[in-house]
Design a protein that fits this description.
The chain has 109 residues and is an all-alpha fold. It is built from 4 helices and no strands. It is globular, with a radius of gyration of 16 Å.
Amino acid sequence: MPARPSAAPLREAASRGGRELLSDLCWLGMSRAPVTAVHVGDWTSDPWARGGYAFTDPCFDPAWRPLLGRRAGRIFFAGEHTSERWQGYMNGAVESGQRAARELLADLR
């Protein structure tokens, strides 16, 4: 599957480095956040995701949705697919990232 043209500017920014990419996210209030590490993933180049987001088929019981974001030992899960309110949207990714960060911080205390 060829990369979508809309992904090209983001891919170009990521090629210059993750720190620069994160500093551009001032709309998330991250422009002054200290950056300790960055991993940039490209879903459009991933042969398994192929640019898509999570999809639940008709056999998926909605009662299982809270389990998608449930931690497993020392592993905390985030992503639009773990959002109960905004599954499939950027809002869900941000919301679930904030939730996972709160869970991690609570665990460290």
